[in-house]
Write a structure and sequence with these properties.
single chain, 108 residues, mainly alpha, 88% helix, DUF202 domain-containing protein, membrane, transmembrane, transmembrane helix
Length: 108
Amino acid sequence: MAIDVKEEQLLLAEIQVLLAELRTHLSLVRTGAGIVVSAATLGFLLLSNGAYLPFVTEMHTTVIYSILLFSVLGGVYLFVRSERKILAITGLIRSAEKKNKRIDKLMV
């Protein structure tokens, strides 16, 4: 019986670490989505109000849109990478639930 308790405690500790990783990657998904939305919004505002910004030259516009494009690509990369990690962590948690029926009942 003592071995089962130790094994269950170890399994619970592993699940705690996995859940902490899951929270981290969920926050990275939020960050990636925020980067994409803010860069797209800035790009849209610059496109729609370009006539009101006479001091912005063609070269400035190219540089600004390049920075915004790389920001969007970085946000999408962060979003997709974190989403893949979330799927992998969820699979690990599901396999840990199958190992122990008590833990399966604990996880909602």
